[in-house]
Amino acid sequence: MTLPHLTMREGLLERVLKEVQRSPDVEIGGRLIGYVREGGFDVLDFIPTGPEPDIATDVELLPDRRYQLWTLDALLDLDGDLAVFGSWHSHIPNGLARFSGQDHRAYAGKMQPPYPYGGMVCGLIHETPSTVEDVRRMLRFAWFPAGAEVGEHTYWPEEAIEWTSAPLNTGMEALLDLTNHEAYLEATGRRLSSLDDVARAMDHLGKRSGHPTHVLRRSPNGERLLLIEEAAGEEGIALEVASDGNARLHLTDEPTDWMPLTRAAGAFEQHLSRWVDVPTEWSHLSPSLVEQLMPIDQADEGITTKPSERRGFLSRLFGR
Ligand SMILES: [Zn+2]
What we know:
Blueprint: E1 5-9, H1 11-22, E2 29-37, E3 40-48, E4 55-56, E5 61-62, H2 65-78, E6 83-90, H3 101-110, E7 119-125, H4 132-138, E8 140-145, E9 154-155, E10 161-164, H5 170-175, H6 182-188, H7 195-208, E11 214-218, E12 224-229, E13 237-242, E14 246-250, E15 259-260, H8 261-272, H9 287-292
Parallel strand pairs: 1-3, 1-10, 6-7
Antiparallel strand pairs: 2-3, 2-6, 4-5, 7-8, 8-9, 11-12, 12-13, 13-14, 14-15
This protein binds zinc ion.
Zinc ion (ZN) binds next to loops.
């Protein structure tokens, strides 16, 4: 098949390098923006994943859609000809050298009518780069034609991509900053949720239960939260939440893999129900509940977590 002509701004290589270096354990990526030309695409850069991805694990990425939509609107205010026609993402955390079935389905879903272009430009990187030149070689772009079989795609040969060294205009550069999301946060009045907010939601759910049997603890560095249900199992079971929003279960000596909070919370309640007649409804613990319960007033002190005397495997967590 004939591939559309693809032009890429070199500046995005360094930004991809920074993104994958700061996110080695969970997937990261961005939505490609640029211009649609007769017979091809000019890729200027990408809208980053954003401060609060819906899901970011080693095998799954659902970006912060609110941030991405706000940023796209702001970009279109600067230049109404800009368009979004694809994305790139990293499989470095899992090493998968191809697009996954889930990727195929997601792209097909995005290209349902009235999707205006002939297909999508999708980039994938699965090895760890050390330099910009590594990124140029390792980040492969494929064309997913609209209306084709789900998952059908063709990679651009390396030499088929035309690289340009044009700078990004400063307004755009500010909007696309990888880690500084001030403009977005200020314009929307959003505040990023923290573990204090997760602790508040746990406290809320705990108080709603008739016979709470849980204890809340925080790791010494403040980056983890541990919800222990003492009534379950021999030594209790625990749900651990990290500051990146992912969570895992401690049911035995070996913790489970990290997973999105909602999934871990549901599994936690199920395990608890084996030991307790009417378990606390931990399955309601989700990013949206955390957000609903966030105080308007930023001076809120948060919930204090108490250290407790533990025996057995839970006592070894957080070094106590
Ligand atoms: Zn993928």
